[in-house]
Design a protein that fits this description.
With 364 residues, the protein is α/β, with parallel strands linked by helices. The protein folds into 2 domains: 181 residues, Medium-chain alcohol dehydrogenases, catalytic domain (Quinone Oxidoreductase, Chain A, domain 1), CATH 3.90.180; 142 residues, NAD(P)-binding Rossmann-like Domain (Rossmann fold), CATH 3.40.50.720. 31% of the residues lie in helices and 27% in strands. Strand 1 and strand 2 form a beta hairpin. The longest helix is centred in the last third of the chain and has 32 residues.
Amino acid sequence: MNQTILVNRADFTDISVVNIEAGELAPDFIRIEIGPWALTANNITYMVAGDIIGYWNFFAPEAYDIKMETAAHWGRMPVWGYAKVIESNCADVAVGTDIYGFFPVAKTLDMKPVKLTSMGFQDGNTHRMELHPIYNGYTFIDTDPSFARHKDLQPVLRPLFTTSFLIDDFLADENFFGAEQVLLLSASSKTAMGTAYCLKARSGIKVTGLTSEGNAHFTKDTGFYDEVQSYDSLTDLNPEVKTVIVDMAGNGDVTRRLYEHFEENIAYNCMVGKSHWQGSAPPKPKLGAPAVMFFAPDRAQLRIKDWGMDGFAQNLAARWIPFCDNAQAWLSVEISEDIGDYLKTYAAFLEGKASPAKGYLFKL
């Protein structure tokens, strides 16, 4: 029996826990047991952008014969994490193999390994072949040395930090659009902190954070920011400083106030996330640069083309490994197999109340 969690695509607070028969494993397929996997604010962004970018399509219930009334209204939130092969009809992937990648919130999943290498494979399920390859690659963790350390931190931070690394790389490549300051919204989020860490390591640009009053002390204590303000005190920021905004929150009201405050001194607005999923849309500014969506997978593909896969991995690791070492000082990871814990934590993320000092790993 396979258990999975479906989300109402029109109302993320409406969820359904479904039990389905696993059925017989098809030829050339493997069956994996999923977990532990991480829950972060980034997963909320995946759902917000589910129709725009296609995140709902990766694990669409109908593609896996999950029957639900009004099935089109339901989807499965994707997560990053580990899995173990528990059954195999693929000669090249043995039972017991541990993998890392992109999964639905479910107990098991059937996958068809294609494009196999010593490092991993792509999922050859028909409906996934046309989707972005960054999300369709699975790593054999025993053959990838980057998984040798910080195993619990990897699902929580690895996908987020890769985005952080790529944002920093993009902004530096554009000479920060002539700005003197990078202003990170939702500064206590892990993607924002990873970005701030990379910017601070690069030096030469002021790194400023905006966060809630309750998270301001934690955010300052990380040491990643030169200045931290709460959303309520954003007018204390110097409006004369030419600024790049990196927006993890997607809160239209906050963005409007920033445009009113900085006006033409907003040199670029890099829209990354939508953790404030119920907030209004960002405004169309009369002064200052309009918001531009940042899609990390496209930037990754560009840099892989420029540097090669090995070069990309080396450049990422140069920032990733010390960031993980640093994270042990401010991040504790909780692991649970209790569905009640998951539902409680999921609700906290929807409400913007999850602790930035914790990482959350789950398994059904």
